Amino acid sequence: MRLAELSAHSGVSTATIKYYLREGLLPPGRQLNATTAEYDEEHLRRLRLVRAMIQVGKVPVATVREVLGHVDDDSLPRAMRLGAAVWALPQVPEPDADDEFVRGARTAMEELLRTLGWSNAQAMTSTSPSFRSLVVAAAALRRLGYDWSPEMLVPYARLMRQVAELDMAFMESQVSEAEKAEVAVLGVVLVEPMLRALHRLAQEEESTRRYGFE
Amino acid sequence: MRLAELSAHSGVSTATIKYYLREGLLPPGRQLNATTAEYDEEHLRRLRLVRAMIQVGKVPVATVREVLGHVDDDSLPRAMRLGAAVWALPQVPEPDADDEFVRGARTAMEELLRTLGWSNAQAMTSTSPSFRSLVVAAAALRRLGYDWSPEMLVPYARLMRQVAELDMAFMESQVSEAEKAEVAVLGVVLVEPMLRALHRLAQEEESTRRYGFE
DNA sequence: ATGCTTGGATAGTGCCGGTATCCGAGAAGG
DNA sequence: CCTTCTCGGATACCGGCACTATCCAAGCAT
Prior knowledge:
GO molecular function, one term (chains A, B): DNA-binding transcription factor activity
Keywords (chains A, B): DNA-binding
Protein name (chains A, B): Transcriptional regulator
Pfam family, one (chains A, B): MerR_1
Oligomer: homodimer
Helix content of chain A: 55-70%
InterPro entries (chains A, B): DNA-bd_dom_put_sf (IPR009061), MerR-type_HTH_dom (IPR000551), MerR_fam (IPR047057)
Distance between the termini of chain A: 52 Å
């Protein structure tokens, strides 16, 4: 497959493919001579993965590169690759540690994890990027005058735990074809937008049920 | 409160506040004379709302303007303002209707809604932006070779329905102080990042439990 | 041989959220 | 009253991001 064919098969313009090659999101093709490079099914697959992450998952290009780096890291065992890749996904800046809302939110969230008994509580509370996003969002709610306590989030967390179990079951059902962390990462990235969409639909539904037609 | 004080109270730079004023995200202050305008608590509140939507919710400025337009639309009853505002939130381009994956995903998702018995099924299936996002994400999954059927999504949808019920309960518990659609919109926008963060934490937790420490 | 295509390098584009600069009108102080 | 400082508004500009357009020399096809 040459670049133009790769483009035709994927629906991604050659210019964009070149850009991804430059950015290291796609490994270079096998160079046949100075003007021809050949790409295979693996490239096509990777290209679709990249596109899905960027377009559907809204993951920034730099983050995609980082995530793929973990996926391809042969020095890590399979389970850890997934962990490392997911770890790299969130793009939340470190919150201002002096902000009183941030401090309060962090304390409250640590308490939440303890209440839930998630092992994160000891292991990675303050380091996980996901935990950071949680703190940032929680602090924003408080700053706006919303009053909540960690206990109120417990049911949310339990439901998301159930969702995570579904995720894992889904992923495991898929691994048959290729035993790659790539598969798992994609699952994580693509399930999220679906979840968000379902959430909003559910809100529309529930709000219609409670308050009548729109 | 003058602009500089508004800035001090909110932590948003005067330049940015001016930008928001220009963009119509913030109503102009009461003009005292040619060089002084006065802002009140309502402005501060609105400013924090805007910041939260943009920074935490990652909502584009143009969308914030649209959402606030609905929130402030006095011609609509309260319940409908929320609906209209939430309706305006997603920013998903219309998918290519000729794409076979999109067509398949749309059919599957319509079936899912029928299975769930959500009233959306009749009322707004093909018009809701959330439904559109769902179709786009589902099509992307299929295009990448993930095999799923509408039934597999049913448990996800049921869990999100439960989440939506929590959302509504939370919002209703908050309406005491100000009976405004603003409150509800914020709930919707800010709960989402928290939910995503909880989801990822739950994945970390569940993946650690299944596959061992990271 | 000639014209077309190929892949690589480089520079440019459009959007978006925000920032810097300039300005004239007033407030503050002596 | 005059100077100096600050205010708010208008305008131009900036930096990051995801592409995209242009150029070029090397090869392939006829």
